Protein backbone atom coordinates (compact mmCIF):
# COMPACT_ATOMS: atom_id res chain seq x y z
CA UNK A 1 0.00 0.00 0.00
CA UNK A 2 2.73 2.39 1.01
CA UNK A 3 4.72 1.61 -2.17
CA UNK A 4 1.66 2.22 -4.38
CA UNK A 5 1.02 5.52 -2.60
CA UNK A 6 4.60 6.63 -3.14
CA UNK A 7 4.39 5.64 -6.79
CA UNK A 8 1.25 7.74 -7.20
CA UNK A 9 2.92 10.70 -5.51
CA UNK A 10 5.97 10.27 -7.73
CA UNK A 11 3.83 10.13 -10.88
CA UNK A 12 1.94 13.21 -9.76
CA UNK A 13 5.17 15.10 -9.18
CA UNK A 14 6.45 14.09 -12.63
CA UNK A 15 3.20 15.32 -14.16
CA UNK A 16 3.44 18.64 -12.31
CA UNK A 17 7.05 19.13 -13.38
CA UNK A 18 6.12 18.29 -16.98
CA UNK A 19 3.24 20.79 -16.96
CA UNK A 20 5.40 23.51 -15.44
CA UNK A 21 8.08 22.78 -18.02
CA UNK A 22 5.57 23.05 -20.87
CA UNK A 23 4.18 26.31 -19.47
CA UNK A 24 7.71 27.66 -19.13
CA UNK A 25 8.52 26.68 -22.73
CA UNK A 26 5.36 28.33 -24.01
CA UNK A 27 6.15 31.47 -22.04
CA UNK A 28 9.68 31.53 -23.46
CA UNK A 29 8.33 30.94 -26.96
CA UNK A 30 5.89 33.80 -26.43
CA UNK A 31 8.72 36.01 -25.20
CA UNK A 32 10.79 35.14 -28.26
CA UNK A 33 7.81 35.80 -30.52
CA UNK A 34 7.16 39.14 -28.84
CA UNK A 35 10.81 40.13 -29.07
CA UNK A 36 10.85 39.16 -32.75
CA UNK A 37 7.71 41.14 -33.60
CA UNK A 38 8.92 44.13 -31.64
CA UNK A 39 12.19 44.04 -33.56
CA UNK A 40 10.28 44.64 -36.80
CA UNK A 41 9.37 48.30 -37.10
CA UNK A 42 5.93 49.58 -37.92
CA UNK A 43 5.81 51.09 -41.40
CA UNK A 44 3.66 54.06 -42.40
CA UNK A 45 3.45 55.56 -45.87
CA UNK A 46 1.83 59.00 -45.93
CA UNK A 47 0.88 59.73 -49.52
CA UNK A 48 -0.46 63.08 -50.68
CA UNK A 49 -2.33 63.78 -53.91
CA UNK A 50 -1.00 66.34 -56.46
CA UNK A 51 1.44 67.93 -53.99
CA UNK A 52 4.31 69.60 -55.82
CA UNK A 53 8.00 69.64 -54.98
CA UNK A 54 7.75 73.33 -54.16
CA UNK A 55 4.61 73.15 -52.00
CA UNK A 56 6.50 72.58 -48.73
CA UNK A 57 8.57 75.09 -46.80
CA UNK A 58 11.18 72.38 -46.17
CA UNK A 59 11.57 72.02 -49.95
CA UNK A 60 11.93 75.74 -50.61
CA UNK A 61 8.46 77.26 -50.38
CA UNK A 62 8.50 80.77 -48.91
CA UNK A 63 4.83 81.76 -49.18
CA UNK A 64 3.44 78.83 -47.17
CA UNK A 65 4.63 77.12 -44.00
CA UNK A 66 4.26 73.37 -43.39
CA UNK A 67 5.88 72.86 -39.96
CA UNK A 68 4.74 69.29 -39.31
CA UNK A 69 5.95 67.92 -42.64
CA UNK A 70 9.08 70.04 -42.24
CA UNK A 71 9.76 68.28 -38.92
CA UNK A 72 9.88 64.95 -40.78
CA UNK A 73 12.23 66.42 -43.40
CA UNK A 74 14.48 68.17 -40.89
CA UNK A 75 14.79 65.10 -38.66
CA UNK A 76 14.88 62.47 -41.39
CA UNK A 77 16.24 62.02 -44.92
CA UNK A 78 15.06 64.69 -47.36
CA UNK A 79 15.47 63.43 -50.91
CA UNK A 80 16.10 66.03 -53.59
CA UNK A 81 15.81 63.42 -56.36
CA UNK A 82 12.77 61.49 -55.18
CA UNK A 83 10.38 60.28 -57.87
CA UNK A 84 6.92 58.92 -58.34
CA UNK A 85 6.80 56.49 -61.26
CA UNK A 86 4.25 58.59 -63.09
CA UNK A 87 2.92 62.12 -63.50
CA UNK A 88 -0.63 60.98 -62.76
CA UNK A 89 -2.22 59.30 -59.78
CA UNK A 90 -3.39 55.79 -60.70
CA UNK A 91 -0.11 54.72 -62.35
CA UNK A 92 1.96 56.08 -59.45
CA UNK A 93 -0.13 54.22 -56.89
CA UNK A 94 0.20 51.08 -58.97
CA UNK A 95 4.00 51.43 -59.00
CA UNK A 96 4.14 52.16 -55.27
CA UNK A 97 2.13 49.10 -54.25
CA UNK A 98 3.40 46.58 -56.81
CA UNK A 99 7.01 47.60 -57.43
CA UNK A 100 6.28 47.39 -61.15
CA UNK A 101 6.64 50.13 -63.76
CA UNK A 102 3.08 51.22 -64.62
CA UNK A 103 3.86 51.37 -68.34
CA UNK A 104 4.09 47.58 -68.27
CA UNK A 105 0.34 47.51 -67.61
CA UNK A 106 -1.65 49.03 -70.50
CA UNK A 107 -4.58 49.73 -68.16
CA UNK A 108 -2.51 51.75 -65.69
CA UNK A 109 -3.96 55.18 -66.45
CA UNK A 110 -6.35 57.60 -64.74
CA UNK A 111 -9.34 55.39 -64.00
CA UNK A 112 -13.05 56.15 -63.73
CA UNK A 113 -14.77 55.22 -60.48
CA UNK A 114 -16.28 52.15 -62.13
CA UNK A 115 -13.00 50.65 -63.38
CA UNK A 116 -12.17 47.05 -62.42
CA UNK A 117 -9.32 46.31 -60.01
CA UNK A 118 -6.06 47.23 -61.76
CA UNK A 119 -3.77 45.11 -59.59
CA UNK A 120 -3.99 41.38 -60.26
CA UNK A 121 -4.87 39.36 -57.19
CA UNK A 122 -2.04 37.02 -58.22
CA UNK A 123 0.80 39.53 -58.35
CA UNK A 124 3.22 40.59 -55.64
CA UNK A 125 2.31 43.67 -53.63
CA UNK A 126 3.82 45.60 -50.76
CA UNK A 127 1.09 44.58 -48.28
CA UNK A 128 1.26 40.92 -49.38
CA UNK A 129 5.01 40.84 -48.82
CA UNK A 130 4.66 42.43 -45.39
CA UNK A 131 1.84 40.09 -44.37
CA UNK A 132 4.16 37.15 -44.99
CA UNK A 133 6.60 38.85 -42.62
CA UNK A 134 4.00 38.93 -39.86
CA UNK A 135 2.61 42.40 -40.43
CA UNK A 136 -0.92 43.67 -40.02
CA UNK A 137 -1.77 45.71 -43.12
CA UNK A 138 -4.18 48.58 -43.72
CA UNK A 139 -5.07 51.32 -46.20
CA UNK A 140 -6.94 54.46 -45.19
CA UNK A 141 -7.90 57.10 -47.76
CA UNK A 142 -7.83 57.37 -51.52
CA UNK A 143 -7.65 54.12 -53.50
CA UNK A 144 -8.17 54.87 -57.23
CA UNK A 145 -6.86 51.51 -58.40
CA UNK A 146 -10.21 50.09 -59.47
CA UNK A 147 -12.67 47.84 -57.70
CA UNK A 148 -14.50 44.70 -58.67
CA UNK A 149 -14.45 43.08 -62.08
CA UNK A 150 -15.96 45.87 -64.14
CA UNK A 151 -19.63 45.48 -63.27
CA UNK A 152 -20.08 46.66 -59.68
CA UNK A 153 -23.16 46.44 -57.52
CA UNK A 154 -22.38 49.06 -54.91
CA UNK A 155 -25.19 47.76 -52.69
CA UNK A 156 -23.40 44.47 -52.00
CA UNK A 157 -19.81 43.86 -50.94
CA UNK A 158 -17.52 45.15 -53.69
CA UNK A 159 -14.81 42.63 -54.54
CA UNK A 160 -12.01 42.19 -55.47
CA UNK A 161 -10.42 45.26 -53.94
CA UNK A 162 -7.70 46.21 -51.45
CA UNK A 163 -8.48 43.21 -49.23
CA UNK A 164 -7.77 40.83 -52.11
CA UNK A 165 -4.33 42.33 -52.87
CA UNK A 166 -2.93 42.19 -49.35
CA UNK A 167 -4.70 44.67 -47.08
CA UNK A 168 -6.30 43.17 -43.96
CA UNK A 169 -8.18 46.41 -43.44
CA UNK A 170 -9.32 48.94 -46.05
CA UNK A 171 -11.24 52.14 -45.37
CA UNK A 172 -11.24 54.02 -48.66
CA UNK A 173 -12.94 56.12 -51.25
CA UNK A 174 -13.20 54.26 -54.54
CA UNK A 175 -11.48 56.75 -56.80
CA UNK A 176 -11.03 60.49 -56.21
CA UNK A 177 -12.91 63.19 -54.39
CA UNK A 178 -14.16 64.62 -57.69
CA UNK A 179 -15.51 61.29 -58.98
CA UNK A 180 -18.59 59.29 -58.08
CA UNK A 181 -19.44 57.26 -56.08
CA UNK A 182 -19.02 59.84 -53.30
CA UNK A 183 -19.12 57.32 -50.46
CA UNK A 184 -16.70 55.65 -48.06
CA UNK A 185 -16.07 51.93 -48.42
CA UNK A 186 -15.11 49.80 -45.42
CA UNK A 187 -13.61 46.43 -46.40
CA UNK A 188 -15.76 46.36 -49.54
CA UNK A 189 -19.01 47.63 -48.03
CA UNK A 190 -20.41 51.12 -48.53
CA UNK A 191 -20.56 52.85 -45.15
CA UNK A 192 -23.98 53.98 -43.96
CA UNK A 193 -25.87 52.64 -46.97
CA UNK A 194 -29.66 52.51 -46.76
CA UNK A 195 -30.71 49.41 -48.69
CA UNK A 196 -34.01 51.14 -49.46
CA UNK A 197 -32.05 53.82 -51.35
CA UNK A 198 -29.64 51.81 -53.52
CA UNK A 199 -26.67 53.39 -55.28
CA UNK A 200 -26.41 53.47 -59.04
CA UNK A 201 -23.29 54.71 -60.86
CA UNK A 202 -22.67 55.32 -64.56
CA UNK A 203 -19.85 57.19 -66.28
CA UNK A 204 -21.56 57.54 -69.65
CA UNK A 205 -25.25 58.18 -69.11
CA UNK A 206 -27.17 60.15 -66.51
CA UNK A 207 -30.15 58.69 -64.68
CA UNK A 208 -33.54 60.07 -65.64
CA UNK A 209 -34.50 63.14 -63.66
CA UNK A 210 -31.16 63.49 -61.84
CA UNK A 211 -29.74 67.05 -61.81
CA UNK A 212 -26.34 67.84 -63.31
CA UNK A 213 -24.07 70.88 -63.35
CA UNK A 214 -25.30 71.67 -66.85
CA UNK A 215 -29.03 71.28 -66.28
CA UNK A 216 -29.13 72.75 -62.77
CA UNK A 217 -26.32 75.30 -62.33
CA UNK A 218 -28.34 77.03 -59.60
CA UNK A 219 -27.52 74.08 -57.29
CA UNK A 220 -23.77 74.63 -57.48
CA UNK A 221 -21.63 75.93 -54.61
CA UNK A 222 -18.47 75.40 -56.67
CA UNK A 223 -18.21 76.33 -60.35
CA UNK A 224 -16.69 73.86 -62.80
CA UNK A 225 -14.07 74.87 -65.35
CA UNK A 226 -13.70 71.71 -67.40
CA UNK A 227 -14.69 68.08 -67.13
CA UNK A 228 -16.61 68.32 -63.87
CA UNK A 229 -20.17 68.86 -65.00
CA UNK A 230 -22.03 65.65 -64.19
CA UNK A 231 -23.76 64.72 -60.93
CA UNK A 232 -23.92 67.27 -58.11
CA UNK A 233 -23.07 66.18 -54.55
CA UNK A 234 -22.96 68.70 -51.69
CA UNK A 235 -23.21 71.48 -54.26
CA UNK A 236 -20.05 70.27 -56.03
CA UNK A 237 -20.22 69.00 -59.63
CA UNK A 238 -18.41 65.70 -60.18
CA UNK A 239 -17.13 63.40 -62.89
CA UNK A 240 -19.66 60.63 -63.54
CA UNK A 241 -23.32 60.12 -62.73
CA UNK A 242 -24.73 58.79 -59.48
CA UNK A 243 -28.20 58.15 -58.15
CA UNK A 244 -29.29 57.13 -54.65
CA UNK A 245 -27.21 56.42 -51.57
CA UNK A 246 -28.10 59.74 -49.94
CA UNK A 247 -27.43 58.56 -46.38
CA UNK A 248 -24.00 57.23 -47.38
CA UNK A 249 -22.65 60.31 -49.14
CA UNK A 250 -19.61 61.83 -47.51
CA UNK A 251 -19.20 65.37 -46.22
CA UNK A 252 -16.39 66.94 -48.25
CA UNK A 253 -15.33 69.48 -45.65
CA UNK A 254 -14.97 66.73 -43.04
CA UNK A 255 -13.05 64.27 -45.21
CA UNK A 256 -9.57 65.13 -43.90
CA UNK A 257 -10.72 64.79 -40.28
CA UNK A 258 -12.54 61.56 -41.10
CA UNK A 259 -9.55 59.83 -42.67
CA UNK A 260 -7.27 61.13 -39.91
CA UNK A 261 -9.52 59.61 -37.25
CA UNK A 262 -9.53 56.27 -39.07
CA UNK A 263 -5.71 56.30 -39.32
CA UNK A 264 -5.35 57.20 -35.64
CA UNK A 265 -7.85 54.54 -34.63
CA UNK A 266 -5.95 51.91 -36.59
CA UNK A 267 -2.67 52.76 -34.87
CA UNK A 268 -4.26 52.65 -31.41
CA UNK A 269 -5.95 49.29 -31.98
CA UNK A 270 -3.07 47.52 -33.79
CA UNK A 271 -0.02 48.75 -31.86
CA UNK A 272 0.78 45.43 -30.15
CA UNK A 273 2.08 43.81 -33.35
CA UNK A 274 3.99 45.23 -36.33
CA UNK A 275 1.69 47.06 -38.73
CA UNK A 276 1.87 48.61 -42.18
CA UNK A 277 -0.41 51.58 -42.75
CA UNK A 278 -0.83 53.20 -46.16
CA UNK A 279 -2.36 56.58 -45.26
CA UNK A 280 -3.45 57.97 -48.64
CA UNK A 281 -4.60 61.54 -48.09
CA UNK A 282 -6.78 63.40 -50.61
CA UNK A 283 -5.14 66.85 -50.44
CA UNK A 284 -4.50 68.98 -52.48
CA UNK A 285 -6.50 67.22 -55.22
CA UNK A 286 -9.68 68.85 -56.47
CA UNK A 287 -12.27 69.66 -55.30
CA UNK A 288 -10.36 71.51 -52.62
CA UNK A 289 -12.72 71.61 -49.68
CA UNK A 290 -10.87 72.67 -46.51
CA UNK A 291 -12.61 72.33 -43.19
CA UNK A 292 -13.88 75.77 -42.05
CA UNK A 293 -11.00 75.79 -39.50
CA UNK A 294 -8.57 76.27 -42.40
CA UNK A 295 -10.56 78.43 -44.81
CA UNK A 296 -8.57 81.56 -45.69
CA UNK A 297 -5.55 80.56 -43.57
CA UNK A 298 -3.06 80.35 -46.44
CA UNK A 299 -4.04 83.48 -48.37
CA UNK A 300 -3.79 81.37 -51.53
CA UNK A 301 -7.35 80.14 -51.73
CA UNK A 302 -8.58 76.58 -51.16
CA UNK A 303 -5.47 74.92 -52.62
CA UNK A 304 -3.18 76.57 -50.11
CA UNK A 305 -5.71 76.02 -47.33
CA UNK A 306 -5.90 72.25 -47.89
CA UNK A 307 -2.11 72.00 -47.88
CA UNK A 308 -2.15 73.61 -44.42
CA UNK A 309 -4.94 71.22 -43.46
CA UNK A 310 -2.89 68.24 -44.63
CA UNK A 311 0.12 69.46 -42.67
CA UNK A 312 -2.03 69.74 -39.53
CA UNK A 313 -3.42 66.23 -40.06
CA UNK A 314 0.11 64.84 -40.33
CA UNK A 315 1.08 66.63 -37.13
CA UNK A 316 -1.90 65.10 -35.32
CA UNK A 317 -1.10 61.66 -36.70
CA UNK A 318 2.52 61.91 -35.56
CA UNK A 319 1.32 62.96 -32.09
CA UNK A 320 -0.70 59.76 -31.98
CA UNK A 321 2.38 57.68 -32.77
CA UNK A 322 4.23 59.52 -29.99
CA UNK A 323 1.39 59.19 -27.47
CA UNK A 324 1.18 55.46 -28.14
CA UNK A 325 4.94 55.06 -27.64
CA UNK A 326 5.56 54.06 -31.25
CA UNK A 327 7.82 56.77 -32.68
CA UNK A 328 11.08 54.93 -31.99
CA UNK A 329 9.79 51.81 -33.72
CA UNK A 330 8.03 53.29 -36.74
CA UNK A 331 9.49 54.09 -40.15
CA UNK A 332 7.50 56.89 -41.79
CA UNK A 333 7.73 57.51 -45.54
CA UNK A 334 6.20 60.73 -46.89
CA UNK A 335 5.62 61.53 -50.55
CA UNK A 336 3.15 62.59 -53.26
CA UNK A 337 1.69 60.66 -56.19
CA UNK A 338 2.67 63.25 -58.82
CA UNK A 339 3.47 66.90 -59.37
CA UNK A 340 1.25 69.94 -58.93
CA UNK A 341 -1.66 71.33 -60.90
CA UNK A 342 -3.52 74.56 -60.21
CA UNK A 343 -6.66 74.58 -62.36
CA UNK A 344 -7.67 70.92 -62.53
CA UNK A 345 -11.33 71.41 -63.32
CA UNK A 346 -12.83 73.97 -60.93
CA UNK A 347 -12.74 77.73 -60.49
CA UNK A 348 -11.19 77.93 -57.00
CA UNK A 349 -8.70 80.82 -57.22
CA UNK A 350 -5.70 78.48 -57.32
CA UNK A 351 -4.24 80.50 -60.20
CA UNK A 352 -5.50 83.92 -59.20
CA UNK A 353 -4.24 83.76 -55.61
CA UNK A 354 -0.95 81.97 -56.26
CA UNK A 355 1.14 85.09 -55.70
CA UNK A 356 4.88 84.32 -55.51
CA UNK A 357 4.35 80.65 -54.62
CA UNK A 358 5.88 78.14 -57.06
CA UNK A 359 4.38 74.65 -56.56
CA UNK A 360 6.82 73.27 -59.14
CA UNK A 361 9.84 74.25 -57.04
CA UNK A 362 11.70 75.63 -60.06
CA UNK A 363 11.12 72.57 -62.24
CA UNK A 364 9.34 72.56 -65.58
CA UNK A 365 5.90 71.07 -66.20
CA UNK A 366 3.59 69.68 -63.54
CA UNK A 367 0.94 66.99 -63.25
CA UNK A 368 0.46 65.18 -66.60
CA UNK A 369 3.96 66.26 -67.73
CA UNK A 370 7.02 64.26 -68.75
CA UNK A 371 9.13 67.22 -67.58
CA UNK A 372 10.62 67.01 -64.08
CA UNK A 373 7.77 68.69 -62.20
CA UNK A 374 5.50 65.83 -63.24
CA UNK A 375 7.31 63.05 -61.39
CA UNK A 376 9.93 64.63 -59.12
CA UNK A 377 8.12 65.03 -55.82
CA UNK A 378 8.83 65.57 -52.13
CA UNK A 379 10.10 62.32 -50.58
CA UNK A 380 11.07 61.96 -46.94
CA UNK A 381 11.96 59.04 -44.66
CA UNK A 382 11.76 59.48 -40.89
CA UNK A 383 12.52 57.09 -38.05
CA UNK A 384 13.21 58.61 -34.67
CA UNK A 385 16.51 57.47 -33.24
CA UNK A 386 17.36 55.31 -36.27
CA UNK A 387 17.67 57.82 -39.11
CA UNK A 388 20.12 60.71 -38.79
CA UNK A 389 18.97 64.03 -40.30
CA UNK A 390 20.45 64.48 -43.77
CA UNK A 391 19.74 65.70 -47.29
CA UNK A 392 20.28 63.11 -50.00
CA UNK A 393 20.75 63.73 -53.71
CA UNK A 394 20.41 60.01 -54.50
CA UNK A 395 17.91 59.08 -57.21
CA UNK A 396 15.17 57.06 -55.51
CA UNK A 397 11.69 56.04 -56.58
CA UNK A 398 8.57 55.08 -54.65
CA UNK A 399 8.58 51.84 -56.64
CA UNK A 400 11.76 50.86 -54.76
CA UNK A 401 10.02 50.67 -51.40
CA UNK A 402 8.86 47.08 -52.06
CA UNK A 403 12.36 45.57 -52.34
CA UNK A 404 13.80 47.91 -49.70
CA UNK A 405 11.15 47.15 -47.09
CA UNK A 406 11.48 43.45 -47.86
CA UNK A 407 15.13 43.67 -46.83
CA UNK A 408 14.23 45.70 -43.75
CA UNK A 409 11.79 43.04 -42.56
CA UNK A 410 14.05 40.06 -43.15
CA UNK A 411 13.28 38.80 -46.64
CA UNK A 412 14.18 39.60 -50.25
CA UNK A 413 12.18 40.72 -53.26
CA UNK A 414 13.60 40.40 -56.76
CA UNK A 415 10.55 39.58 -58.88
CA UNK A 416 9.65 43.18 -59.80
CA UNK A 417 11.24 46.41 -61.05
CA UNK A 418 11.80 47.49 -57.45
CA UNK A 419 15.42 48.01 -56.36
CA UNK A 420 16.73 47.37 -52.84
CA UNK A 421 17.75 50.85 -51.72
CA UNK A 422 17.22 50.28 -48.01
CA UNK A 423 20.55 51.82 -46.99
CA UNK A 424 19.72 54.85 -49.13
CA UNK A 425 16.25 55.25 -47.63
CA UNK A 426 17.77 54.99 -44.15
CA UNK A 427 20.38 57.64 -44.98
CA UNK A 428 23.32 55.22 -44.74
CA UNK A 429 24.55 55.86 -48.28
CA UNK A 430 24.15 58.40 -51.10
CA UNK A 431 24.06 55.65 -53.71
CA UNK A 432 20.71 55.52 -55.48
CA UNK A 433 19.40 54.36 -58.82
CA UNK A 434 21.57 54.64 -61.91
CA UNK A 435 18.58 54.74 -64.24
CA UNK A 436 14.84 55.30 -63.92
CA UNK A 437 12.08 55.27 -66.52
CA UNK A 438 9.52 58.00 -65.81
CA UNK A 439 6.06 58.16 -67.35
CA UNK A 440 3.36 60.71 -68.10
CA UNK A 441 0.02 59.93 -69.76
CA UNK A 442 1.47 56.94 -71.59
CA UNK A 443 4.72 58.60 -72.70
CA UNK A 444 8.04 57.59 -71.16
CA UNK A 445 11.48 59.13 -70.67
CA UNK A 446 14.76 58.31 -68.90
CA UNK A 447 16.47 59.80 -65.86
CA UNK A 448 20.09 58.64 -65.87
CA UNK A 449 22.60 60.22 -63.50
CA UNK A 450 22.38 63.97 -63.94
CA UNK A 451 20.66 63.61 -67.29
CA UNK A 452 17.14 63.29 -68.67
CA UNK A 453 16.36 61.95 -72.14
CA UNK A 454 12.91 62.53 -73.67
CA UNK A 455 12.05 60.93 -77.03
CA UNK A 456 10.15 62.88 -79.66
CA UNK A 457 6.37 62.60 -79.36
CA UNK A 458 3.47 63.90 -81.39
CA UNK A 459 0.84 66.11 -79.83
CA UNK A 460 0.51 69.52 -78.20
CA UNK A 461 3.03 70.58 -75.60
CA UNK A 462 0.99 73.20 -73.78
CA UNK A 463 -2.42 72.18 -72.44
CA UNK A 464 -4.52 75.30 -72.02
CA UNK A 465 -7.14 73.76 -69.71
CA UNK A 466 -4.65 72.92 -66.99
CA UNK A 467 -2.01 75.48 -67.95
CA UNK A 468 0.84 72.96 -68.06
CA UNK A 469 3.60 72.03 -70.50
CA UNK A 470 3.49 68.25 -70.89
CA UNK A 471 6.73 67.87 -72.85
CA UNK A 472 5.47 66.78 -76.27
CA UNK A 473 7.79 67.83 -79.08
CA UNK A 474 8.46 66.11 -82.43
CA UNK A 475 12.18 66.05 -81.64
CA UNK A 476 14.36 64.46 -78.93
CA UNK A 477 15.26 66.36 -75.78
CA UNK A 478 18.34 66.05 -73.58
CA UNK A 479 18.85 67.97 -70.35
CA UNK A 480 21.44 68.06 -67.59
CA UNK A 481 19.02 68.55 -64.72
CA UNK A 482 21.78 69.13 -62.17
CA UNK A 483 22.94 72.24 -64.01
CA UNK A 484 19.60 73.08 -65.63
CA UNK A 485 16.80 72.07 -63.25
CA UNK A 486 14.25 74.09 -65.22
CA UNK A 487 15.06 72.14 -68.42
CA UNK A 488 15.50 75.23 -70.56
CA UNK A 489 18.61 74.18 -72.48
CA UNK A 490 18.03 71.23 -74.82
CA UNK A 491 21.47 69.67 -75.45
CA UNK A 492 20.33 67.02 -77.94
CA UNK A 493 22.03 68.67 -80.92
CA UNK A 494 25.12 69.97 -79.13
CA UNK A 495 25.88 66.70 -77.31
CA UNK A 496 25.09 63.87 -79.74
CA UNK A 497 27.30 61.36 -77.90
CA UNK A 498 25.40 61.73 -74.62
CA UNK A 499 22.12 61.67 -76.56
CA UNK A 500 23.08 58.37 -78.21
CA UNK A 501 24.26 56.91 -74.88
CA UNK A 502 21.02 57.71 -73.08
CA UNK A 503 18.82 56.65 -75.97
CA UNK A 504 20.52 53.25 -75.98
CA UNK A 505 19.99 52.87 -72.23
CA UNK A 506 16.36 53.96 -72.58
CA UNK A 507 15.60 51.51 -75.38
CA UNK A 508 17.37 48.68 -73.56
CA UNK A 509 15.22 49.26 -70.47
CA UNK A 510 12.00 50.30 -72.16
CA UNK A 511 12.12 48.46 -75.47
CA UNK A 512 11.82 50.04 -78.89
CA UNK A 513 8.03 49.97 -79.04
CA UNK A 514 7.58 52.87 -76.62
CA UNK A 515 5.49 54.91 -79.09
CA UNK A 516 3.05 52.11 -79.86
CA UNK A 517 -0.35 52.79 -78.32
CA UNK A 518 0.56 56.31 -77.14
CA UNK A 519 -2.52 58.49 -77.56
CA UNK A 520 -3.43 62.03 -76.68
CA UNK A 521 -4.92 62.15 -73.20
CA UNK A 522 -8.02 64.23 -72.57
CA UNK A 523 -7.55 66.38 -69.48
CA UNK A 524 -10.64 66.15 -67.30
Concise account of the structure shown:
The chain has 524 residues and is an alpha/beta fold. The chain has 10 helices and 20 strands. Strands 6-5-4-3-11-1-12-13-2-14 form a 10-stranded mixed beta sheet, sandwiched between helices. The chain has a 4-stranded antiparallel beta sheet with strand order 15-16-17-20, with helices on one face.
Q: Key terms for this structure?
A:
single chain, 524 residues, alpha/beta, four-stranded antiparallel β-sheet, 10 helices
Structure explained in plain terms:
- It is a single chain.
- 25% of the residues lie in helices and 17% in strands.
- It is an alpha/beta fold and 524 residues long.
- It has a ten-stranded mixed sheet, sandwiched between helices. It has a four-stranded antiparallel sheet with strand order 15-16-17-20, covered by helices on one side. Strands 7-10 form a two-stranded antiparallel sheet.
- Helix 5 runs parallel beside helix 6 (301-323).
- The model is unreliable at 28-38 (pLDDT under 50).
Note the run of SSEs as H and E: HEHEHHEEEEEEEEHEHEHEEHHEEEEEEH
How many whole angstroms does the radius of gyration measure?
Answer: 25 Å
Oligomer category: single chain
Distance between the termini: 95 Å
Net shape: globular
Strand content: 15-25%
Count helical runs: 10
Unreliably modeled segments: 28-38
Largest sheet: 10 strands, mixed
Order the strands across the largest sheet as they lie in space.
6-5-4-3-11-1-12-13-2-14
Helix content: 25-40%
Extended strand count: 20
Secondary-structure class: alpha/beta
| Average pLDDT figure | 94
Amino acid sequence: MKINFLRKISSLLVLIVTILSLVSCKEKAKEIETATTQAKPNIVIIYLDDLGYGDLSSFGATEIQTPNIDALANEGVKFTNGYATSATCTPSRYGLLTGVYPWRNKDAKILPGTAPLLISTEQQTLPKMLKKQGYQTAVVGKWHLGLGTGVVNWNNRVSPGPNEVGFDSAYIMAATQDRVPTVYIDNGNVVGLDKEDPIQVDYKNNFEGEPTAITNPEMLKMKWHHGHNNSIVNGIPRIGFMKGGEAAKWSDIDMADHFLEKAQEYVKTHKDKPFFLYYAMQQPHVPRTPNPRFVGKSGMGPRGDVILEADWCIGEFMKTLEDEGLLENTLVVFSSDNGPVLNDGYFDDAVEKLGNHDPKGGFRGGKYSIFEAGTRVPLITYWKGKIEPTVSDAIVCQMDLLASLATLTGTTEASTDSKDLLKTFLGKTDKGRDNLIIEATGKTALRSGDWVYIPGYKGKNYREKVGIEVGNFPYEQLYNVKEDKGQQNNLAESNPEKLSELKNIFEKLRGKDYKIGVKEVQFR
